[in-house]
Structure of ABC transporter permease:
Amino acid sequence: MHPRDLLNEAVAGLLARPVRSALTTLGTVLGITTLVVTLGVAATAGNQIVGRFDELIATSVTVEVPEHPFPLVDWADVSRVTRLRGVVSAAALAESKQSANLSVRSNDIVDPARITDQTLTVLSSGPGLPAVVKGRMIEGRYFDAGHIARGDKVVVLGQHAAKLLGITRLTRAPAVFIGTQAYTVIGVLGELKREKSLASAVLLPPAVGERYGLGTVTRVLVDTGLGAAELIAEQAPAALSPGNEALLQVIAPPSPTRARDAVEGDVNALFLILGLVSLVVGAVGIANVTLVTVMERVAEIGLRRALGAARRHIAAQFLLESSLTGLAGGVIGASGGIVVIVMICAVKQWTPVMDVRLAVMAPAAGAVVGLLAGLYPALRAARMEPVNALR
């Protein structure tokens, strides 16, 4: 049988039952659409996750300063880090066990009927902290170099700490009491994207914090540009404490490229399994309908065999019909999947990301699924004896 004749017979067989062929193709369409959508959304979601990783984590470097007989890092040393190429901002912090749980209240009246004291963490920091932690001043301002130089008794509260103390507005210059000492609240820091524990802290200038054991720098937070974290992690210790850089511990983010590959690989693996399950469902539908078609066309098969058609011709005809069904489902499913991905990204305001090979290979995958699904029905049709089929 000439290949062109075989193709004509296969197409005629599909068009003879258009409704059934359309419903059979629908199974493959759904399977391929699901596969394309899941892989496309996985790639897009992976890109979004990596973007957020780069923004919030891959730009953060922390230098831990251990206890030492003499201070390894001075408050003024942070300015040397900010001069490094790739550093966006930097700030020093001082923490101690003594100040981890101090009693803080917003008035000097002791009322036995209600609890007015709050146990909060008290820290000292340099003036560049809001930029490093990617927060903003909800109320007031952060203390500057002038407050630090004069030793002003001022504090900045984290957003949650201000709420606990009942301080919502700073128009009347409210004060808080740490022990018996009063401090004027000049600002409320909130919406932190890094070091979110600071939302429940009380922040003091370094000179004032010395009375609570907060005169020595214990951490330096550095915010870098994308791609600069690894280099800054190597240079920051030498900039902060020349000659003692080996004593400082640097916490740097993992490689963004490695993290990107890991995230996208995990997400793709999960969604690939879901897509393949949907595709198998479509293949079962093709196999089931093709087998029913073979049983309905027994007389036709017997007549073709009686007129001289070989077993391979019968098998090839049904294999071609199932392959064409899968191919049509693959083309429609790939097109529908791309449209769905674009619509999802438009709603979420994402940038659609999809491998071009997926759109090209999806129709081929549909054809292969149709071919495999029609294998058993085609072999069963080819085994029929002409006499039995005609009877």
